[in-house]
Amino acid sequence: MGQVESSENKVNYRLLNKEEVNRLSSNIYKNIEDYKNKENIYIFIIETEKEKKIVGIGCLMMKLTKKNRYGFVGIIKDIVIHSKDDNMSHNLIGHIAEYAIEQGCYGCTMDELVE
């Protein structure tokens, strides 16, 4: 999805496929088990380019809504960053939102109260 130079080293932002999600250790993220087999939930990671070490994770849930407008809205949730670089969380959220819009969501939010 993207590559950014951080204060630590180069990192990649990318969407995990189902096989990669199933290989993730539940120790990395305690709620990962809840997301493994659900439809319309996508897991993104930030990993270092050299070591392939995961330094951040975030989820996108695409939900059909009829409240103000009929269509899908992207709900960004569970952003966890293990880094001192403040821009990583902003960049991860931006990458997730961009992916949601590309997939047909008319908007994104971090508020789970979307109906």
Structure notes:
The chain starts with a strand and ends in a 6-residue tail after the last strand. It has a 6-stranded mixed sheet with strand order 1-2-3-4-5-6, with helices on one face. The chain has helices at 18-23, 32-35, 87-102; strands at 2-5, 10-15, 41-48, 54-65, 71-81, 108-109. It has a single domain, classed as 3-Layer(aba) Sandwich (Aminopeptidase). Strand 3 and strand 4 (54-65) form a beta hairpin. It has 3 helices and 6 strands. The longest helix is centred in the last third of the chain and has 16 residues, at 87-102.
Sequence-ordered SSE layout with sheet pairings:
Blueprint: E1 2-5, E2 10-15, H1 18-23, H2 32-35, E3 41-48, E4 54-65, E5 71-81, H3 87-102, E6 108-109
Parallel strand pairs: 5-6
Antiparallel strand pairs: 1-2, 2-3, 3-4, 4-5
